[in-house]
Amino acid sequence: DARVTQTPRHKVTEMGQEVTMRCQPILGHNTVFWYRQTMMQGLELLAYFRNRAPLDDSGMPKDRFSAEMPDATLATLKIQPSEPRDSAVYFCASGPPGPLGADTQYFGPGTRLTVL
Amino acid sequence: RKEVEQDPGPFNVPEGATVAFNCTYSNSASQSFFWYRQDCRKEPKLLMSVYSSGNEDGRFTAQLNRASQYISLLIRDSKLSDSATYLCVVNTGGFKTIFGAGTRLFVKA
Predict the structure, then answer these.
(1) What is residue A109's DSSP assignment?
(2) CA angle B51, B38, B34 (to 5 degrees)
(3) Model confidence at A72: pLDDT above 80
């Protein structure tokens, strides 16, 4: 049963520290999405990639957030420096090739980030 | 105004009841529509796509009204296991997907 994996599952850090979250998309999927979920804002799309190229990262605070896909099996989301308002659950999702890539998204279990 | 709006609920219904959720979207150029389900402290999972002609999957029926820009989800014969948050999702073009805030459903014995 193919799944999206995310590490770490939980992260507690102090304000100002760098945080790196990792995602392994389902093998063969070439679309990757990063979302952030909070009680106040719900699920927000931060960035997405197609064939490892960033298509849109307009949902991401540029000054502290960065997203990359070093290879087809790894996507990273980095926050530097982290702030308490970044506390949220960060989800990665992947989609298959073809027109269904955005329509059929498979989510990972999320990284629960707490910034003190 | 949010791009995708849902009644947050919660909807509290007894087992066996029929319950309906609505969702409205603001971008008339939106191209595809979905319902996802999210259990407490879990990731969202695709429940079903929504087509203009309507589609049914067992006890679940989804409908799209483009003229009025709303999407609906009907659950018949509710089960305890249907308790979850239901997220309305709109693809506004390309790969940009917008999630609604979700409607919480509690099904009670």
Answers:
(1) -
(2) 10
(3) yes
CA–CA gap between residue A61 and residue A64 (Å, rounded) = 6
| DSSP-derived secondary structure letter, A98 | S
CB contact under 8 A, B34 and A101: no
Is the pLDDT at A103 greater than 90? The verdict is no
**With contact defined as beta carbons under 8 Å apart, do B9 and B74 qualify?**
no
CA-to-CA distance for B62 and B64, rounded, in angstroms? 7
Query: What's the CA gap between A15 and A85, in Å, rounded?
Result: 10
Measured CB to CB, residues of chain A less than 8 Å from chain B are: 31, 33, 35, 42-45, 48, 50, 55-56, 91, 95, 101-110
Using a CB-CB cut-off of 8 Å, the residues of chain B touching A34 are none
How many angstroms separate the CA of residue A73 from the nearest CA in chain B? 19
For the stretch B61-71, pLDDT in tens is 999 999 999 99
Give how far A108 is from chain B: nearest CA, Å. Answer: 7
**Alpha helices, DSSP H only, in chain A?**
none
